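Q: What would this chain look like folded?
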Amino acid sequence: MDLVPALEEPLKQPLKSVLGPATAKVMAEHLGLHSVGDLLHHYPRRYEERGQLTHLADLPMDEHVTVVAQVADARLHTFASAKAPRGKGQRLEVTITDGSGRLQLVFFGHGVHKPHKELLPGTRAMFAGKVSVFNRRLQLAHPAYELLHGDSEETVETWAGALIPIYPATAKLESWKIGKAVQTVLPSAQEALDPLPETLREGRGLLPLPEALLKIHRPHTKADIAGARDRLKWDEAFVLQVALARRRHADTQLPAVPRTPRPDGILAAFDDRLPFTLTEGQRKVSKEIFDDLATDHPMHRLLQGEVGSGKTMVALRAMLAVVDAGGQAAMLAPTEVLAQQHHRSITEMMGELAEGGMLGGAEHATKVVLLTGSMGAAARRRALLDLATGEAGLVIGTHALIEDKIQFHDLGLVVVDEQHRFGVEQRDALRGKGKQPPHLLVMTATPIPRTVAMTVFGDLETSVLDQLPAGRSPIASHVVPAADKPHFLARAWERVREEVTGGHQAYVVCPRIGDEEDDPKKAGRKKSAEDEAEKRPPLAVLDVAGQLNGGPLQGLRVEVLHGRMHPDDKDAVMRRFAAGETDVLVATTVIEVGVNVPNATVMVIMDADRFGVSQLHQLRGRVGRGAAPGLCLLVTEMPEASAARQRLNAVASTLDGFELSRIDLEQRREGDVLGQAQSGARSSLRVLAVIEDEEVIAEAREEAASLVAADPDLEHLPGLRTALTALLDEEREQYLEKG
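A: My prediction, written as structure tokens:
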């Protein structure tokens, strides 16, 4: 059965339009609503109660808001202006109140006549507009409004019931106009096909879909809203989990070459030469990976590990297992600095085992090649030949590995480091290099809450490394409020000097490089002192390095590192820092992942409020990698009460990346986190909150897995097939295909 015609009906069509053509056009262009079904799934953001007014005191600046309030007074002023020189200009000022605060509305010119007649003291109405400040007072200029005294039948009909729905709106289409449009199409909700199997819906006591749609848009009680939201959350979680479960099921049908390590091969030789024992976590995760590699369908595994938990070691052992089995393994890194760093540390860890085909190479040795976009032609030719002949068992590179020209002899495993930096297309292109689909291991040091992992990476099995290897030191973190307490910043530079004097090294991280040209448009504008403090450009590597060299760190060996340097220069700087020839490295976030210098013990992050929570946690993981304790100083000029300071306090208070990722997610909208996993989905998350609804997502995943195992093609569930079609438009389908 195809999509239900009533819900598929376009809001705008040449012959008969469900809504007025202008309204339908705005809905399509500004809200992405094209069909009756889209509009029915555009849920209210919140509800106003007739007897309870919005808090005018809490209005956000520069945002389009809808408020329900009462007119306290209205005054018409006349004034002289360029357009009305004889004092004929008119300005209507209306003050509205909600008991918690007051707000000024202002109308000018010919726009004053209608509100002057209608907005009399005591009148209640809904007002919508953009909040601005004039003479230090909040105001709405020329707001749209809808009277709520209920004279006309239409208003009574539209606002029947005690709860007024407030919809996500735009400047071009107010909330109540969306409400009226929903009222027009609401009868079609009766024809909505239910995606949930009846047994599941009844077993969990959920409302039927038509009833849930009716109650979310026209609730009579708060219980109506709660029941509707519970039901609609299940729809979102379940349909997405079914899509992912079908993806996992399809993957188990793909062929792959099983790769089993030999008991006396390169992996055994590598393990024998390790100067330390693996943590219990590393052994457990390695076993999960080896079990997957031994099957005849491709592994799809996500390896999450705290910064410094030894993920690279686990990945390297998996790569060596594949080499043992006669295949090749590729590791994809997001930056050249990181690819070079991985290549260097892997060849060091392997020693003579990385010298295949060379004098002095061990018996089971293989070649480890590096492939990046900036390599010289001769080195590149050699690397390509080693890959094509199978001489090189391991290759580490950037997205240069994906180019069409590159041929592998027998690609058995792809390891993707820091997955969030790679597009799905790039991962897919590399996987396409194998004769059969290679096994895939995705690594991330950004801890992902369990529910996000289930939602975004739901087609990957997940392994977690949460133990730090022995010998790792704790990292102390402190916020340095540079504006409130400048002497704290001076003390921070003294601490850097003390660490260097003690034989250690330091990082100073800045948000910007500093050689960008100033925008001429911005340069001409005058700014208030307040603006200057709030909106000054982020501190830059080149400026800060110069100031430190001539000031608090004078006499120390200071170098800079940033993404716009030539790759050879970057590598040279990193080598000098790793060798201890540089005391302080002033860098951008190019050092965020993978850079490993155990002797670096202190990091100062300038303008720390300009970085995200997870990014700060990543950066901090670059220190404390040796036996000496690490120190991370978060420098900020933001005031104590600001949200930015609270975020920094949270980072300073815990080293638990999973806890921080929850904080991060609560502070940002889900869409940012879900990123491309939600792209192309017309029906992405609306009522489901990834953190709060952990139970719903976990239960939906279980239900989806058992349902797909019994009926992979969903032959008996036309409603669910319809919902999947709506969710998985072409782009989204491709995303899941490749994920």
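Residues 151-161, 517-534, 669-683, 730-739 have pLDDT under 50 and may be disordered.
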